[in-house]
């Protein structure tokens, strides 16, 4: 994803298309998450307007 300010639906669809092997999880920014490293998971953090606030990455 080149533009981290896109919508969560667009981000999730793009990631799922490009990486069908990962589980995409959309979370509100500031959410508590586990610190375990998983190569089959991508977290997408969004603000209250459902805009992506940071570049999604495998983790």
From TrEMBL:
<keyword id="KW-0646">Protease inhibitor</keyword>
<dbReference type="GO" id="GO:0009611">
    <property type="term" value="P:response to wounding"/>
</dbReference>
<dbReference type="GO" id="GO:0004867">
    <property type="term" value="F:serine-type endopeptidase inhibitor activity"/>
</dbReference>
<comment type="similarity">
    <text>Belongs to the protease inhibitor I13 (potato type I serine protease inhibitor) family.</text>
</comment>
<dbReference type="InterPro" id="IPR036354">
    <property type="entry name" value="Prot_inh_pot1_sf"/>
</dbReference>
<protein>
    <submittedName>
        <fullName>Proteinase inhibitor I13, potato inhibitor I</fullName>
    </submittedName>
</protein>
<dbReference type="Pfam" id="PF00280">
    <property type="entry name" value="potato_inhibit"/>
</dbReference>
<dbReference type="InterPro" id="IPR000864">
    <property type="entry name" value="Prot_inh_pot1"/>
</dbReference>
<keyword id="KW-0722">Serine protease inhibitor</keyword>
